[in-house]
Specification:
The structure is a homodimer. Chain A is of the alpha/beta class. Chain A has 10 helices and 12 strands. Chain A has 3 domains: about 5-85, Arc Repressor Mutant, subunit A, CATH 1.10.10; about 90-160 and about 270-290, Periplasmic binding protein-like II (D-Maltodextrin-Binding Protein, domain 2, 3-Layer(aba) Sandwich); about 165-265, D-Maltodextrin-Binding Protein, domain 2, CATH 3.40.190.290. Chain A is about 40% helix and about 25% strand. Chains A and B meet through helix 4 of A and helix 4 of B. The first copy, chain A, binds a DNA duplex through helix 3.
DNA sequence: ATTCATTATAAATTATTTTTATATCAACCG
DNA sequence: CGGTTGATATAAAAATAATTTATAATGAAT
């Protein structure tokens, strides 16, 4: 069976228009008619219902089922291409959320440098949530990710290497700046400057707000620690980060949280379980493990 | 890309012999040569190393990677066929381990009968461990499975509906038969008759033995409760089953276990998350839920 | 040195897919 | 109504792709 037919069909279930699919793939319309016929023969079932009365194309139950699998197959094929490309170019793409990149990566880079392997490494920046998907679909080969619970994801292998508590950061001239420890509930009426939703900080933050039964007022979301810290320093709001997320600065004060059973920031090395690691990638992984492991 | 090429390649990585692959698929040998060439062109990389010196065919890193994905794609395609076949024949295959079949299924069957749906149901018997795989690769659409921890498997959805403690069964004339409750450690020197390893009972049993630091003497393994019970009645050994696993009989006595934090037998309704349920399958699922749910 | 087992190559054949050209069908429109 | 439009189907021709046949090449084993 040709995977092209699956691609045609997958598109058809979405556009519900034979001619449009033909256009999308730069082929003529009868090609699509024939492709669908082939699939219907292969699976011995009607896949689409041509309802010319309402000029609307229906997908049968079998068709829906096929569409689900067709997409899975096409995604797998795509992933295969990406992986093999990285493999042949001996390139390792390491996904890094900015906080981890700032805190842990310098150490790793130094070791890789020493082994002359830095040239084979590309980094891919993004929030942990976004990177998890990037890892799945082959944009990255390895990643260092943050999470609030030990990672255990379908098709991914995760090895936790560090845990960090979350902290609150306020401007040095903020009323709370004198305190060293506070309860999250005391922040009920504060304004917040936070990471955007592709970061795990949000998961943890939401746990805190849910437990304390309040809707926080989030005045701004950014995806850069420095931007956030600058806003905090100017009292635009307070923020919620890990201790390691913030370089030291005089105009911002760090507060410990006193709440029980707090979520933690768990840092893990993550990779796909279906991915056969190259020697280079294994070396990178080994460096990550020895450098980051306790 | 044609999936046939992936099948050829997958076979080749295992047989490591072009001619053998050709035979396996009933085609001529140059067909395989060409297929591999096509894949090598598609992925722009060498996939196999023709090492004629050692008359051994090596698979490159890229080849290994492709093989992993090729198998995944072919399995997905196979699953698709199976699912669509069941779909068009409006047949639902329900996987049932024998213990669950004996205890819970009669109730379910009565309800299905009342709704005239029993004709659309086929059952597939096997241990929970084996059925889990059968469900994954499409031999079954739904299953009632036993487990010792709440089920959460990659690509499967599980809804727990009952919990049962494990018990020990001994012959009526066994020295322990007078006791009503015992500690597992008291069984250190007993002979055991058990289910074979495709049953979850083993997982639980192993937890008990590990905690009590002994290697049990297993004298026989069977996959039928009656066989096991008959052996127990004749003092061939004692067994380890759920309370519901045994019909009442005079020659066998049931003992409660006194150990702390025992594993339980958790019964769950399980199905694939990628599977689009037919109306019939949804009805069956609804009957399962109402009949089995508390 | 010859034979054997294995894979490669090239031309011919066969199968499959795509295009071109045209038909069908229902809805819409004045 | 009849004509036009948008959508899919069909059939024959053309283009592509896969497979076979026949044979060559390669290295190992005897």
């Amino acid at each position: 069976m040709n995977t092209k037919d699956l691609a045609y069909f997958s598109d058809l279930t979405q556009t519900k228009n034979f001619s449009k699919v033909a256009q999308d793939f730069g082929v003529t319309q009868p090609t699509i008619t024939m492709a669908i016929k082939r699939l219907e023969a292969e699976f011995q079932t009607k896949l689409v219902l041509r309802d010319r009365t309402h000029n609307d194309l229906g997908v049968t139950a079998s068709g829906e089922q096929l569409a689900v699998h067709a997409r899975a197959i096409l995604a797998e094929l795509d992933l295969t291409h990406q992986e093999i490309t990285h493999l042949t170019q001996d390139q390792t793409v390491l996904g890094l959320p900015p906080i981890i990149e700032n805190h842990y990566f310098p150490r790793v880079a130094a070791h890789l440098q020493a082994q002359g392997m830095l040239a084979n490494l590309q980094t891919l920046e993004g929030g942990s949530v976004w990177l998890r998907q990037a890892l799945r679909d082959g944009q990255a080969d390895l990643a260092l990710l943050g999470s609030t619970a030990p990672l255990s994801y379908k098709s991914l292998v995760a090895e936790a290497f560090d845990r960090q508590p979350f902290r609150i950061f306020v401007a040095a001239d903020h009323p709370l700046a004198k305190r060293q420890r506070i309860y999250f509930s005391e922040l009920r009426h504060e304004k917040f400057v936070l990471f955007n939703s592709s970061f795990v900080h949000n998961t943890a933050f939401n746990q805190f707000t849910r437990r304390n039964h309040f809707r926080p007022e989030v005045v701004f979301r950014a995806n850069d620690t420095h931007v956030i810290m600058n806003l905090v320093a100017q009292n635009v709001g307070v923020t919620f980060l890990t201790a390691i997320g913030a370089q030291h600065r005089d105009d911002v004060v760090q507060l410990e949280l006193l709440d029980d059973a707090q979520p933690e920031f768990i840092a893990s090395i993550v990779y796909r379980d279906s991915h056969v690691l190259t020697p280079t990638q294994q070396q990178v992984l080994a460096v990550l493990r020895t450098t980051l492991g306790e």
